[in-house]
Design goal:
Layout: H1 2-24, H2 27-30, H3 33-60, H4 69-78, H5 87-96, H6 105-136
């Protein structure tokens, strides 16, 4: 739980920074290259961390093994760890990861903008999951 709390604080800060950058910029026009690269880097970091935490939950609770990284979120939703309503955004982020360099900036910004709120909800669900596991112990 302590490791998750430290990681979740980092993820939360990264989500906040991405949301702020998107909100405070005139999207692509006002994004300087450095800021846009930072947003992409943070998005990748958030996505990888959420997949990793999700996989750990699956392993620790002996849930259905995912077929791929996107399926991690489907497995979690099947077991009510996360809401099924956020799965499409989380899957989209996971699917985008291996080919992130092939998207143009407009497509990438669209993916990030759509997915970032789902990551906020997912993180809250993960916190709730770990808190309930801790109270059971």
């Amino acid at each position: 739980m302590n490791n998750f709390l430290r990681l979740s604080e980092n993820i939360k800060n990264n989500i906040t920074e991405v949301k702020s950058a998107i909100r405070n910029a005139d999207l692509l026009n006002a994004f300087d290259t450095q800021t846009f690269e930072r947003v992409i880097y943070l998005f990748q970091s958030i996505t990888k961390s959420m997949i990793e935490v999700g996989n750990n939950i699956i392993i620790e609770n002996d849930l259905r093994s995912p077929l791929n990284t996107a399926d991690v979120f489907i497995s979690l939703a099947e077991h009510n760890v996360i809401s099924s309503s956020i799965v499409p955004g989380l899957k989209r982020a996971a699917i985008a990861m291996p080919k992130i360099k092939s998207y143009d900036n407009t497509e990438l910004l669209d993916i990030i903008t759509v997915c970032i709120n789902d990551f906020s909800w997912c993180l809250k669900s993960f916190k709730k999951h770990f808190q309930s596991k801790e109270s059971e112990a």
